[in-house]
Design goal:
By secondary structure, this protein is α+β, with helices and mostly antiparallel strands. The chain contains four helices and eight strands. Strands 3, 4, 5, 7 and 8 form a five-stranded antiparallel beta sheet that branches. Helix 1 packs antiparallel against helix 2. The longest helix is centred in the first third of the chain and has 60 residues. It is elongated and about 100 Å long. The chain starts with 5 loop residues before the first helix and ends in a 7-residue tail after the last helix. It holds the Pfam family DUF6776. InterPro entries: DUF6776.
């Protein structure tokens, strides 16, 4: 049986040491047997080969056990992460649709920026609303970035960030919450300071939420109400 605990490995080590000691004893006995010990030498060599095979088998079994244990630990860690993520999702959902949830209108709940290759950045924007239960909020999202370039203040609008003169905002449509994702590109030499998320609903006034750039990059921080 393959050991699955430190104590089991200790027993295995003792067993292997005993086998090695036995090999040494067999060999010294054969060495003293003299010219007339051909049959004893052959038997000893056979025994040595058998013991070496046992050692090799035990070593393989030990490695397999270690690999299996490592794979199991990795799988358990992944499951724990999945469970934590699901619990967070449930808690998030309950905050907005539960019977005791505070009523709020359309808002940017979270804005997260993740660096990509070159000057590209991946954005994840979470929109929420539960003021009108069952009502669908729809419209378009755009981003703008304020910063400096060559010592001067500059604001990059959605078209500049998307590198498309006629770029349209990202459509959204949801009852309680929705995540929007995409990428924007900053020009070389531009130092971002703030990011602005602008929502233009199909009905109602546009609204904006502003975050410091580092706040959005370092951690998923909720936008100010």
């Amino acid at each position: 049986m393959v050991p699955s605990s430190p104590a089991g490995y200790a027993v295995l080590a003792v067993f292997v040491a005993a086998i090695l000691f036995g090999l040494w004893g067999v060999w010294t006995t054969v060495a003293r047997s003299g010219p007339g010990g051909e049959l004893d030498a052959a038997a000893a060599r056979a025994r040595i080969e058998a013991l070496e095979q046992e050692v090799a088998t035990l070593a393989r079994s030990d490695q397999i056990s270690r690999d299996a244990n490592r794979d199991l630990q990795g799988a358990l860690a992944e499951r724990e992460e999945e469970i934590s993520a699901l619990r967070a999702d449930v808690a998030f959902y309950e905050r907005f649709v539960g019977s005791t949830a505070q009523r709020r209108g359309l808002a940017v709940h979270e804005l997260v920026l993740t660096p990509r290759t070159g000057q590209a950045w991946h954005y994840t924007v979470t929109l929420t609303q539960n003021l009108n239960r069952g009502a669908v909020s729809s419209g378009r999202l755009t981003l703008a970035v304020e910063g400096t370039r060559e010592g001067r203040l500059e604001r990059l609008d959605w078209a500049a960030l998307r590198q498309q003169p006629d770029a349209e905002g990202v459509e959204y449509s949801f009852k309680y919450f929705q995540q929007l994702e995409g990428e924007v590109v900053l020009p070389p030499g531009f130092e971002p300071l703030r990011v602005v998320a602008r929502l233009a609903p199909t009905s109602g006034k546009p609204l904006e939420k502003t975050l410091a750039w580092q706040e959005a990059v370092q951690a998923p921080a909720p936008a100010a109400e």
